[in-house]
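Hello,

I think I submitted the zinc ion job twice by accident. Can you confirm which output corresponds to this input? Input:
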Amino acid sequence: MFYATFRSMAEVDVQYPVTVVYCGICGYPPEYCEFGSADTYAKCKVWIVENAPEVLPGLKKEDVAQDAKLATQEKVQMLPGGKVKKTELPSVIISHVARTKRKWVTIVTGISGFGIDPNQACKIFRNKFACGASVSRDKKDEIVIQGDVKDEIFQVMMGAYKDKIKPADVFYLQEDGSKVCAAS
Ligand SMILES: [Zn+2]
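Support: Only one job matched these inputs. Its output is below.
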């Protein structure tokens, strides 16, 4: 099966040092930094570039420095402007992230905004994809699926939750941070 192949290839291709390194910002191993908050991750990336560049090859120091600066700025701007409140409609965001060169995870966020229990959704995903799926430790509305199922998961969700989620409510997160409606 595809996912089985996927995983065993990743195991053969391990090039990381066996010693476990922990991020100096969030305290998790650097491969897990991305599952922290976006603001923290922006700062983690600065640490990663300097201390564990092999985790995110291709990251440039000046780019991550800019992200970290923006993450800090946003906070500062929001403190005095407490009245400015973003009213966002619920949406489901699908993204996928490379853990290593060949091992991908697919991340689904926002499903509880539609009255769906993420734990129950995990069970459905586990059965449909025959792979691991769990709710993030620190984010109760984030489901992490072990495998690149980005292309299949939209159909699975529409099958399982067609009464609750409309196709127009589901988005793919692009690499540049923009969102594309999954139904388009
Ligand atoms: Zn970190």
